[in-house]
Amino acid sequence: MAPNLDPPQTVEWQGKRVPVWSMQTVNYELLLSQDPAEVEKVLNACLEEGYFYLDLQGIDGKRMLGDQQETLKLMHRFFEQPIEAKNEFGLISSHLGYEPVGSRVGAFGAGTKDGYEMLKVSRDEIQRGSPKVPAVIKNSGDLGVLENAIGSSNTICKVILSALSTGMNLTGAARFENSHRNDRPSTTTLSMMHYLPSEVTGAKKIGHQKHTDISSLTLLFSEQWGLQIRPPGTCGAREMGFVAPKPGCAFVHVGDSLRFASGMKMQSCIHRVVPFNPSEHRYSIAYFLRAEDDTMFVDSEGRYVSAGQWHDEKFKAFTDPWMYQAMAPRSMILGGMKEAGEDDPVAAPAAPVDAAPVQLEKRKEVSVEA
User: Fold this and answer.
1) pTM (2 decimals)?
2) Which of 30, 120, 156, 343 has the most CB atoms within 10 Å of its CB?
């Protein structure tokens, strides 16, 4: 389904009508100038819902839209490489490297696997003199594409944080942007995801598990349907529903760290990705702005923990086998967000009998950096 300025209220999906939830649209140009009405709008969106569209069609935002298109071309070049070339990079740390399809347990029950491959590039790493990136990217001269994408995404997220600080009347060290400095270690990451068609991955590898993000803010680009959210608060009993791609806009999600830093005032967005069209390749780009590793806050369990500790614990929960995920505190996967009832299961489309298996090879053993 193509992006639409006026999306439908429901769509047909897996034999039933599913809601398409609305999002407020925040203007980046107005945020950049600290327009009081736009500052109030973005603050209310984060306090009440935890998500919004960010309109980037002004003169300053257009640079990011261009960077996003160049990153998309880079993704096509990288993911079209043989599996051996991609696995050569491997997973260097939790926020740097390549993950093949099916590396993580899926959202939809025992025996499922997530249906995407992912390339992650650390902001801290890209600032180094000789950053670790796949050879195919370094040798092709695409390093500048990653630098531009990370730089513009980082600036946009800092503008949003600054507006939220202003809206909450924060000053000095208490302002959110002051715990997200570029020169301090953090797990801030640009993640590039390629969701493969169901007939390629097979019926047991679908989507991306329901979760809230480890980040403070997530800046997400995807021109294709598949993202679902659960509205928070009094809407908690309502089902997961799609959000429509909107031309010239990014999705922005509040993540756990910003929720905790706001004293639980902000909502962390519960979302997942499902195969809207099982026959298509789907691409998305997510910039996860995360707090400095030594930033302290009270988490959803009432513990006083660092941002680095929360990241490592939640990343482990994401990658644990299904039986351990089921035993993990629900507050870990969902960042303490409450929801009434359970989601309807997602029916995995049956793979054709003659479908070729996904070419997956055992990747190199790596250690996850703390």
Assistant:
1) 0.87
2) 156
